Amino acid sequence: MDFILPKLEYSFNSLEPVIDAKTMEIHHDKHHAGYVNNLNNAVKGTEWAEKTVEFLLKNLDSIPESIRETVRNNGGGHANHTLFWTILDGKGGGEPEGKLADAIKKEFGGFEFFKGLFSKTAASRFGSGWAWLVAKPDGRLSVYSTPNQDSPITKGDIPVLGLDVWEHAYYLNYQNRRPDYIENFFKIINWKQVSDYYKG
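RESULT FIELD:
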């Protein structure tokens, strides 16, 4: 079975003014689509074509060296973006509630400290990559960044919130002002969806 580019559940302009419609269109229809196409081409005709992207990322060491880096980059790009689109909402923002809020308070001391840590992590990622809030196997929360399209799934962690800090995610609107992009990102987070990922 081929990997498929997921459809957005909202229009390209739904996240404005935080993320503009043109950036969303290029990001989804060109960049994410490219990862999907490259991943399909890499595993076509192999046993890996029948696996989920999560399985591929958890078992990179078992994938033939000839396609391993392609699967790592494009499988990660596909998985990372598939999550990213779902945690965005033009009417989002605010703070999480329930179990996720409790876990953030327990691990980080409160939402504001978590927000500052996450923002600093995203801003200090050199070059291209992602900032993550993940659930560890024992259920504890952690914040860290990954380079390029590396996925927390490869580490055995469960990503619940991710921010794409590749320049293609924000450059049309923000140019070199990555911190502004990060600050505005918190206005469009779908905390209900993030909470569902954490509870799951």
